[in-house]
Specification:
138 residues, mainly beta, six-stranded mixed beta sheet, 1 helix, 12 strands
Length: 138
């Protein structure tokens, strides 16, 4: 006789499968950024997080507290990176027109930052120091 599954058991199994698919959808090199290539949250238990955003859609990355975070934006795509609590943060804006990075007070470098819509802030210190297309937080 075949076993029948209760609706609750089926719902729980579906949830577990969906969560596994979400985690496996992350295409970063070491699986440290959960949610997908272009919209992800770094896993807090990892010592570092890196994500290279793909062409075709906006990129939003949330770095975890205390870790080193490295993000590569896709040219021509909106790119927003929140790394204000990270130990270190490096972002390549890829000369995209809309790149916003919220850095920690120090230890942050943003490269290929061009135009008025490339905005980089340094914790509570205000705007980053700019030199050409590089913005840094001391």
């Amino acid at each position: 006789m075949a076993r029948r599954w209760s609706p609750l058991a089926l719902a729980m199994a579906s949830t577990v499968i969906a969560m596994a698919a979400l985690v496996s959808a992350c295409s970063t090199s070491n699986g440290d950024c959960v949610g997908g290539t272009n919209n992800c949250v770094c896993v807090a238990t990892e010592p570092s997080c890196s994500d290279d955003c793909a062409d075709g859609e906006a990129c939003r990355v949330q770095c975890a507290a205390g870790q080193a975070c490295d993000v590569g934006c896709a040219p021509g795509q909106l790119c927003h990176v929140e790394c204000s609590t990270a130990a270190q943060c490096d972002v390549d804006c890829a000369a995209t027109a809309d790149c916003h990075v919220t850095c920690p007070a120090s230890g942050c470098t943003v490269t290929n930052c061009v135009g008025a819509d490339c905005v980089v802030s340094c914790g509570n210190l205000g705007e980053a120091t700019r030199s050409g297309t590089t913005a840094t937080c001391p």
